[in-house]
Amino acid sequence: MKKYNEIIESKYFIGVLALVAFISWITNIPYIAMSIYFLIAWYILLFNGPTKVFIPILINLLFISRTDYNLNDFPVLLTMGGIISLVLIIYYLIRYKIDLKKCNLKLSFLLFAICSVISLINLDAGDEPIRYFLSLAPVLYLFIYIFLAGSIKEDQSSYLCISMIASGFIMSLEFITAGVVQGNLFYEVVDFAWYGPNTMGIYLNMIIIAIAYLIVKTDKLGLKIAYYSAIMFFYSVIYIGHSRGAIVSILIYLFPTIGLVIKGSTNRKHDIPLVCICLTIALISIFLTWDVILFTFNIGFHLNGREVLWPGAIKEFLNHPIIGQGLFSDSITYLWETNKVLAVHNTYIQTLLSFGVIGAFVYIFHTFEKIKLIFKNKHPFIKFLLVIWLAATVHGCLDSTMYMIGFMMYYICIFAVVDNLDVGEENGDLCSC
């Protein structure tokens, strides 16, 4: 078992898991990655393997398919595999007696789970009973969070960031590949996966801030150049992805992030010139491709349907103001002729619609729990987490970030790692992670 554990927890295995996701995407056979990921997860749960490997598994599970799943063809393997994994997580929690004291956000996650169960009373499932299962996602989040936060050993902040970078490259490669195939990468909104460029922008912004943390942790010039190059690449992908929400978020978090990098730098004679070079290249590129910016915002200064969604969601909230009507209720879908899961595209309105006033208080409590956790910890990663939170909060005004399954996988992994930041110190270099 020790030999297998050493293989799957190595830094190279992060790349292997990401590559598996891309192979599944390019072949459009998501069951390849699902099967491999579930087998690895079950091995870890049954034989007490290195649970940190769940971080790249959970993140890369988002990028294994280009199929735009609707509720009539929701993947059976993903559903059944998720149920089996949940059972094994419960087994792991009982068998290996994890440390619940480390799980600082457990109470608010529990309250969200309770809200999701109670709100089923008012859930309009339409003709898709699967909505009941999907609306219980906060219950799954609770168990995943407790499992990860309670079982991770030592400071895994660098491992988390590198896992995020790998997922960023896979996501970007999928986007670029689809754009080239469709024939116009710069002047069309590329259709490349079950999620869109706007969602990709949320993820890439978080990944960019995570890279900034790794820049601070290393004093090796070669690695710094590689990290800055990765940041520029991901900014380019956001730029041609035409996500206005992501671009607005960049304007808000960019300079605080630069400030953190310069202030925390172990070698400013490297970081200051590299930051200046990157900013210069970015400004020149924007000037030379100003028509891309014009296209992005000429998609419309309107809200792309949100001006219909938001008033409709508020009206629906007033029908069930106390406990809401479930996370994936069909009641809002009448605004579009679709049988797909439809989010409100605003975290705060989504909270009211899904969980009512009670859910709003739980969300506020969850926010205070995060604030308490963040400000009691002096680890350098915390400062960058604050910037990630700022970017996600801003983007949450235009998307239901806290209720997007993909976003929550990143979110849970990040805060599970934060719960263990004071356990030990991990080397931040990519080559020694």
Low-confidence spans: 334-340
Can you give the mean pLDDT? 84
- Major sheet: none
Helical residues, percent: 55-70%
Our estimate of the beta-strand percent is under 5%
Q: How many β strands by DSSP?
A: 0
Structure write-up:
- It is a single chain.
- With 433 residues, the chain is an all-alpha fold.
- It is built from 18 helices and no strands.
- The chain has helices spanning 2-8, 11-27, 31-47, 54-60, 76-96, 106-118, 130-135, 137-151, 157-182, 197-217, 221-241, 244-264, 268-288, 290-298, 306-317, 347-375, 380-395, 405-418.
Topology:
Elements: H1 2-8, H2 11-27, H3 31-47, H4 54-60, H5 76-96, H6 106-118, H7 130-135, H8 137-151, H9 157-182, H10 197-217, H11 221-241, H12 244-264, H13 268-288, H14 290-298, H15 306-317, H16 347-375, H17 380-395, H18 405-418
Nutshell version of this structure?
With 433 residues, the protein is mainly α.
What key attributes describe this structure?
433 residues, mainly alpha
